[in-house]
Amino acid sequence: MLARHVEAASHMAEGYTRAAAGNIGVCIGTSGPAGTDMITGLYSASADSIPILCITGRAPVAKLHKEDFRAVDIASIAKPVSKWAVTVMEPAQVPGTFQKAFQIMREGRPGPVRSTCRSTSR
């Protein structure tokens, strides 16, 4: 479903998880502001022990640490409100990272996880 607003998408993912046993809501947004918009949904899911997966893009490596507003370190921002927040630096890491994310969000006290995938463009 197209949410048209990333904060709403994170709440929709939470609602999808709550709707039926076995569901896991996933939302996807761009890097920068969209990633920070998801924080409210991550906090809500964390407070209620709801597993969701939030995925954001990442600014190209050449722009990291250069004060570009799209190059925000969203993993550090998401860590306090998620069970696991990670930045995937290589495309080959994506399958293993998602597998680990689904494992972590379901083990122990369920909760949200966050994955940021960097752009391969330079």
Detailed description of the structure:
It is a single chain. By secondary structure, the protein is an alpha/beta fold. It has a single domain (6-117), classed as Thiamin diphosphate (ThDP)-binding fold, Pyr/PP domains (Rossmann fold, 3-Layer(aba) Sandwich). Helix content is 38%, strand content 16%. It has a 4-stranded parallel β-sheet. Helix 5 (94-106) links the parallel strand 3 and strand 4. Helix 1 (6-19) packs parallel to helix 3 (39-47).
Percentage of residues in DSSP E strands: 15-25%
Q: Please tell me what the overall shape is.
A: globular
The largest beta-sheet arranges its strands as 1-2-4-3
Number of helices: 5
Look at the structure and give the mean pLDDT: 85
Number of domains: 1
CATH topology: Rossmann fold
Helix content: 25-40%
Q: By CATH's scheme, which homologous superfamily applies?
A: Thiamin diphosphate (ThDP)-binding fold, Pyr/PP domains
Brief descriptors of the model:
alpha/beta, 38% helix, 122 residues, globular, 16% strand
